[in-house]
């Protein structure tokens, strides 16, 4: 079976067939650059990165667009409050966003269009809608009349007739239950930034930004459009209405949406103080790879409950993968062979790819991976794995590295991880498992950590390069 996705529009899992053979045109709603992105945003961006990587692995050329919303109600309000020009205010968060992408190993999209640099395209789109009778004006603003578009409500599965009383909505975000005519062009107001255009002085509404920028870079009909579930209504519903009303063509073929990340079972919110950025987690001693692992470990259509415990489990899972990566590089293969291991590795590889093909089931893929990792460790323990098996283990880990976007066995080791391994080694020695204790010492050694047994306990230092320093006492 080939690649298939759950399509929000049809509420079914569908076979994926791109419009142009071998190419996937993908639009991913990007950040509103009014603050640092939080780990919920990164859940969505990381899943989109996995989507991209898996499509590439399956041989497609991907053309991805991610917009930067650098003008909307929120960016304007915050810039005004900070006493900065819009561009000055958003620049800091645009820079931070790209830094975070790199830190997390997220592949770059082909295009990152900024809303403020595409006002001309937005004006063109609004002009088309106006000429075809989909808009009306009120106090210099232009509103999309939703009952001129019969398909309105299809994506979000809501009945527009129930609430189509022509109440106008000026805010970019509104009540998720009630469809209303929405602003595509907002008249100049007070000291807000504005553009002088044939539509009058004003600025675009948020929804029209994505319609104009996606069609500019991907064409009037393209393959996949993604975002978090909060984007379904009204944002994506309105994108469809504006785009299809203007072009008369289907806008997007597959709509994919990620469920939200929550923290300790609760919605993230400033008032609860549980909104974490990537920077917050790094300051607490977690490395980007651990964060990446956790955020990818749950299937994207299931809510992800973020806890520090789960982050610690991700660290342990990665250590197990690193252990195997180090082992196959350092432990000489046996002269014999282990056909059973070879079969498990082949099964795992097929299982991983089949899980990802099935609507990107990352949790299933990781399950297959760890089955094989367990078998590989025990084969190596027993001295059975020969050079053919070692090569197959290497291939399997490389597959994981490529599609999940994580390097194994090479990441800079954090103090907290060193402490953790030293504690495991001490425990192993207490249980008289000396082989395990030596293995952990070697593992640390391979990552440049030197242990010294002193009468005061275990001390460690980094042996690589100029940064040699002495760590705290081991347990
Ligand atoms: P925003 O910057 O608010 O426009 O959001 C950027 C992207 O992050 C959008 O695709 C949102 O749907 C997504 N998003 C926002 N909050 C969360 C969350 N808690 N979990 C997952 N994705 C989210
Ligand atoms: Zn968007």
Key attributes of the depicted protein:
475 residues, alpha/beta, 14 helices, binds adenosine monophosphate
Description of the molecule:
By secondary structure, this protein is of the alpha/beta class. Helix content is 45%, strand content 16%. It has 14 helices and 16 strands. Strands 5, 6, 7, 8, 9 and 10 form a six-stranded mixed β-sheet that branches. The two termini are 51 Å apart. Residues 464-475 have low confidence and may be disordered. Zinc ion binds next to loops.
Could you outline the blueprint of secondary structure elements for this entry?
Layout: E1 4-7, E2 12-15, E3 23-28, H1 39-57, E4 61-66, H2 73-82, H3 86-103, H4 119-131, E5 135-138, E6 141-144, E7 168-169, E8 181-187, E9 195-197, E10 200-204, H5 206-218, E11 222-228, H6 232-247, E12 252-258, E13 261-263, H7 278-283, H8 288-296, E14 304-306, H9 308-330, H10 339-357, H11 362-381, H12 387-404, H13 415-430, H14 434-446, E15 449-454, E16 457-462
Parallel strand pairs: 3-4, 3-11, 7-8, 11-12, 13-14
Antiparallel strand pairs: 1-2, 5-6, 6-8, 8-10, 9-10, 15-16
The structure holds adenosine monophosphate and zinc ion (ZN).
Residues 29, 210, 235 line the site of zinc ion.
């Amino acid at each position: 079976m080939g690649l298939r996705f759950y399509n929000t529009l049809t509420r079914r899992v569908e076979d994926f067939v791109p419009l142009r053979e071998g190419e996937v045109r993908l639009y991913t709603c990007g950040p509103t650059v009014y603050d640092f992105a939080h780990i919920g945003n990164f859940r969505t961006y990381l899943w989109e990165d996995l989507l991209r990587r898996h499509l590439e692995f399956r041989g497609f050329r991907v053309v991805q667009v991610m917009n930067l919303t650098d003008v909307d109600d929120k960016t304007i309000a915050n810039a005004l409050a900070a006493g900065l020009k819009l561009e000055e205010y958003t620049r800091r968060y645009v820079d931070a966003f790209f830094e975070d992408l790199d830190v997390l190993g997220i592949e770059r999209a082909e295009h990152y269009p900024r809303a403020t640099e595409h006002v001309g395209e937005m004006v063109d789109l609004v002009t088309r809608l106006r000429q075809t009778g989909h808009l009306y004006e009120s106090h210099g603003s232009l509103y999309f009349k939703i009952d001129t578009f019969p398909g309105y409500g299809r994506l979000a599965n809501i009945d527009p007739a129930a609430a189509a009383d022509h109440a106008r909505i000026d805010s970019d975000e509104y009540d998720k239950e009630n469809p209303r005519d929405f602003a595509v062009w907002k008249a100049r107001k007070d000291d807000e930034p504005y553009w002088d255009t044939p539509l009058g002085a004003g600025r675009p509404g948020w929804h029209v930004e994505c319609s104009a920028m996606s069609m500019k870079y991907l064409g009037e009909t393209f393959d996949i459009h993604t975002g978090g579930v909060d984007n379904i209504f009204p944002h994506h519903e309105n994108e469809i209405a504006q785009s299809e009303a203007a072009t008369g063509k289907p806008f997007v073929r597959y709509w994919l949406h990620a469920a939200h990340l929550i923290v300790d079972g609760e919605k993230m919110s400033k008032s609860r103080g549980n909104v974490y950025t990537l920077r917050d987690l790094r300051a607490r001693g977690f490395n980007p790879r651990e964060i990446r692992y956790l955020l990818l470990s749950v299937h994207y259509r299931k809510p992800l409950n973020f806890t520090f415990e789960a982050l610690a489990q991700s660290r342990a899972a990665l250590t197990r993968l690193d252990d195997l990566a180090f082992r196959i590089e350092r432990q000489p293969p046996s002269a014999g062979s282990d056909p059973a291991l070879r079969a498990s590795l082949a099964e795992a590889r097929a299982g991983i790819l089949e899980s990802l093909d099935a609507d990107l089931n990352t949790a299933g893929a990781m399950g297959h991976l760890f089955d094989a990792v367990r078998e590989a460790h025990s084969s190596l323990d027993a001295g059975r794995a020969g050079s053919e098996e070692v090569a197959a283990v290497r291939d399997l880990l490389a597959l994981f590295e490529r599609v999940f976007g994580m390097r194994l066995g090479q990441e800079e080791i954090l103090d907290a991880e060193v402490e953790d391994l030293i504690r495991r080694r001490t425990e192993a020695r207490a249980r008289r498992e000396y082989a395990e204790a030596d293995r952990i010492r070697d593992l640390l050694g391979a990552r440049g950590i030197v242990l010294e047994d002193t009468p005061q306990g275990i001390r460690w230092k980094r042996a690589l390069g100029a940064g040699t320093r002495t760590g705290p006492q081991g347990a």
